[in-house]
């Protein structure tokens, strides 16, 4: 099959606006597709964050009419490119919906800070992303090419497959188009009152238990039911979301469409995350120089967090959203034990107030053993990946995860729970896997602080008493290929399958 034409629709893209891993995927996958000679483009909302990003953005002169119930709202279309590429990024402007984010005022892309500091969703998120999904469909004739596939991502674009099948299929240029829908995190579904259906232009009879209804009008379910193919961001997560433990109420729906459901592990952007040429590090290194140069990164990390520069104290690193999903409760419960084992702990993240308070209290009691940074800092994120001896990622669930892949590349063995993408990307350092030369990190099954503690304890046995084994784990980890080119090849095969190729 000749080169494919793919439009990725998403609510955030790295370099323009980002809250999580979705943005990394939608920034990296189209680059990889373009490298493989496919035509890719991206469409996203024009947030205030985009204007603050410094990315060059220009008007196209395109004004789209977007039906919303008994109204038609106009939106301008702007255009940019993914950094250092020719991949176009189309930006949907509608200031009342999208240009409200302002970190100084506690306003993000989807949420704002409440009176107590907790994050609450914007009251009109449903309306905002009905508008965005409809605008994506109206944009298609103005792209300069006709997409073979529209690749929608997460609940914010869950209506795109519905619109194509129910309202646009017979329009010129739309007939052969197919849709792929990717679930990056099933916990976020976009569920709203039935009355929101009135704004969509979709026939009311679609609101039934087999299609759009699931405790309300459910955008994620819409994407799952109507897309030609559904993916999650790892094979293990694709299996997990079909179970009651991980399916967040949609496990039956996903089990019913298992024939079109698959998992593709996200790639790692090795242009940005590579210790061989990472300008944010105190020292760059390769697999050949890791044991010579990594200690320089460790000392730099200790200085940055005002910890004693002790080369013999194992540094445990954490870069995560400070929320229940990420296993922060396990880390906090096990942390006193880590200090008793002679470790230092450094944490970078932002999230729930309770974890902010717990970390601050723990750091105040152990200022020479614990360092924290509440918020996000790109330089510190790289410093932690390179300077830590072990990276902690004991997630309750993890659709794919990126930090464990960064850790592998940086020779910082990750300590993970065997869930989702963590299970697919980290090979546990059992005696058998060590003997076979396959081990790349450390993992455990039970979601308990004691399981995390015992796993770290075993890792430290290798670190201190069996350094040859630990070094082998480091080298094997750094040799892994979780590049986006690898992932893009899997997506291309999927696109070809839905197109009948």
From TrEMBL:
User: Where, in this chain's numbering, is ADP-alpha-D-glucose bound?
Assistant: 18
The pathway where this protein functions is: Glycan biosynthesis; glycogen biosynthesis
What is catalyzed by this enzyme? [(1->4)-alpha-D-glucosyl](n) + ADP-alpha-D-glucose = [(1->4)-alpha-D-glucosyl](n+1) + ADP + H(+)
Q: Which GO terms describe its molecular function?
A: alpha-1,4-glucan glucosyltransferase (ADP-glucose donor) activity; alpha-1,4-glucan glucosyltransferase (UDP-glucose donor) activity
Query: Does this entry carry the keyword Magnesium?
Result: no
Domain of life (superkingdom): Bacteria
The EC number(s) given in the record are 2.4.1.21
| Domain Glycosyl transferase family intervals | 304-461
Where do the Starch synthase catalytic domain residues begin and end? 5-255
This chain's protein is named Glycogen synthase
Origin organism is Frigoriglobus tundricola
């Amino acid at each position: 099959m000749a080169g494919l034409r793919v439009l990725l629709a998403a609510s955030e893209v790295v370099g323009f606006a980002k809250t999580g891993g979705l943005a990394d995927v939608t920034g990296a996958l189209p680059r990889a597709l373009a490298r493989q000679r496919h035509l890719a483009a991206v469409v996203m909302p024009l947030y205030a964050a985009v204007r603050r990003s410094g990315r060059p953005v220009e008007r196209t002169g395109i004004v789209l009419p977007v039906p919303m119930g008994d109204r038609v709202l106009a939106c301008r279309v702007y255009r940019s490119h993914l950094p250092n590429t020719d991949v176009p990024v189309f930006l949907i402007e509608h200031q009342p919906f999208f240009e409200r984010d302002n970190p100084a005022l506690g306003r993000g892309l989807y949420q704002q800070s409440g009176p107590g500091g907790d994050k609450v969703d914007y009251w009109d998120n449903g309306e905002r992303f009905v508008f965005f999904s409809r605008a994506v469909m109206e944009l298609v004739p103005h792209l300069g090419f006709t997409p073979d596939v529209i690749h929608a991502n997460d609940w914010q674009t869950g209506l795109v497959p519905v619109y194509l099948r129910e309202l646009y299929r017979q329009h010129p240029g739309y007939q052969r188009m197919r849709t792929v829908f990717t679930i990056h995190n099933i916990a976020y579904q976009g569920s709203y009152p039935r009355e929101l259906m009135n704004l969509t232009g979709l026939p009311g009879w679609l609101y039934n238990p087999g299609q759009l209804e699931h405790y309300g009008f459910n955008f994620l379910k819409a994407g799952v039911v109507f897309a030609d193919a559904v993916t999650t961001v790892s094979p293990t997560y694709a299996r997990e979301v079909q179970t009651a433990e991980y399916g967040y109420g949609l496990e039956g729906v996903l089990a019913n469409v298992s024939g079109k459901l698959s998992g593709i592990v996200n790639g790692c952007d090795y242009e940005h995350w590579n210790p061989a040429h990472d300008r944010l590090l105190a020292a760059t290194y390769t697999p050949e120089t890791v044991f010579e140069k990594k200690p320089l990164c460790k000392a730099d990390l200790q200085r940055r967090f005002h910890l004693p520069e002790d080369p013999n104290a194992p540094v445990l690193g954490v870069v995560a959203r400070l929320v229940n999903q990420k296993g922060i409760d396990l880390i906090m419960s096990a942390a006193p034990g880590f200090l008793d084992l002679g470790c230092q702990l450094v944490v970078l993240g932002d999230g729930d107030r309770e974890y902010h308070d717990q970390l601050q209290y723990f750091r105040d009691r152990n200022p020479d053993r614990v360092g924290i940074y509440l918020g996000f800092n790109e330089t510190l994120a790289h410093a932690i990946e390179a300077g830590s001896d072990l990276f902690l990622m004991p997630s309750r669930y993890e659709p794919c995860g990126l930090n464990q892949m960064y850790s592998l590349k940086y020779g910082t063995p990750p300590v993970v729970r065997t869930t989702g993408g963590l299970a697919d990307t980290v090979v546990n350092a059992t005696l058998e896997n060590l003997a076979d030369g396959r081990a790349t990190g450390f993992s455990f099954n039970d979601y308990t602080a004691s399981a995390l503690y015992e796993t770290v304890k075993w890792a430290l046995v290798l670190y201190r008493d069996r350094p040859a084994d630990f070094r082998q784990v480091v080298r094997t980890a750094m040799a892994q290929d979780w590049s986006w080119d690898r992932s893009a090849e899997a997506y291309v095969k999927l696109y070809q399958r839905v197109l009948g190729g």
